[in-house]
Amino acid sequence: MNDKITKTSLGQGGKGQTDWKRVDALTDKDIAQAITEDPDTFEPEPEWLQRAMILRPGQPKLRVTAYFDQEVVEWFRAQGRGYQTRMNAVLRAYMEGVRKSPRSPHHS
Question: What is the pLDDT of residue 7?
């Protein structure tokens, strides 16, 4: 599965280039194999989420506009006050995990 399924840009205003018949024809096995072969696949260790909860007060923050899946935002909001800080902690733990992964081209 070396070829891309989707290629589009926001704001093009046209029909995307997704081959939906091909996507619909993918089996669970095809998808699992594509995930396994993807060099960007990140498989967290069991303690990964615990590390994600480490808060780092005092670090400068950058205001950005980002789009997340509605279900993801609703889940984090349901966890109570500080949900954006927890989202940031999960993203930071992912970033640090990828940096430390010997498979990652961004390994430092």
Answer: 56
Supply the pTM of this predicted model. Answer: 0.45
The residues, any chain, with a CB within 8 Å of residue 22's CB and separated by 6 or more, are: 5
Q: Could you give the CA distance from residue 91 to residue 86 in angstroms, rounded to a whole number?
A: 9
Give the span between the Cα atoms of 56 and 93, in whole angstroms: 12
pLDDT single digits (tens) 45-88: 777 766 666 566 667 888 889 999 999 999 999 988 888 988 98
Q: Where are the domains of the chain?
A: 1-38, 43-108
Going from the C-alpha of 28 to that of each of 2, 33, 67, 105, the distances in angstroms are 17, 9, 27, 27
Instruction: Answer for the pair 89, 53: CB distance below 8 angstroms, yes or no.
Output: yes
